[in-house]
Specification:
7% of the residues lie in helices and 27% in strands. The chain is mainly beta and 100 residues long. It has a single domain, classed as Quinone Oxidoreductase, Chain A, domain 1. The strands form 2 sheets. A 3-stranded antiparallel β-sheet has the order 3-4-5, with no helix packed on it. Strands 1-2 form a two-stranded antiparallel sheet. The N and C termini lie far apart (36 Å).
């Protein structure tokens, strides 16, 4: 798959081929269609944040819109081909439990 990768903060982003990962239990694999370059992401890529640098190389970003390609074991309520939004800072207004 094509991915924008950052080898280390302060270096330029590089578009390259990466192995397609398999989704872990409870996760899905997305084909991202749109992603924002948020102000903190830019600072992160430029090496200007004093914290939160994971070991490289990695693909920066936390938000976006994509299509589910593969569903991992234990996932319910989602299916391949479904369009989803990714925003890790949303908080549910109700508690939801997995079906038994």
């Amino acid at each position: 798959m094509k991915a924008w990768m950052l080898d280390e903060p302060g270096k330029p982003l590089v578009l390259r081929d990466e192995p397609t990962p398999l989704p872990r239990r409870g996760a899905v694999l997305l084909r991202m269609e749109a992603v924002p370059l948020l102000s903190y992401t830019r600072s992160y890529v430029e090496g200007k944040l004093p914290y939160a640098f994971p070991p490289g190389p990695f693909s920066p970003g936390t938000d976006g819109i994509g299509i589910i390609k593969t569903v991992g074991e234990g996932v319910f309520g989602f299916r391949p081909g479904q369009r989803v939004v990714v925003h890790p800072h949303w908080v549910a207004n109700e508690a939801v439990a997995e079906p038994e």
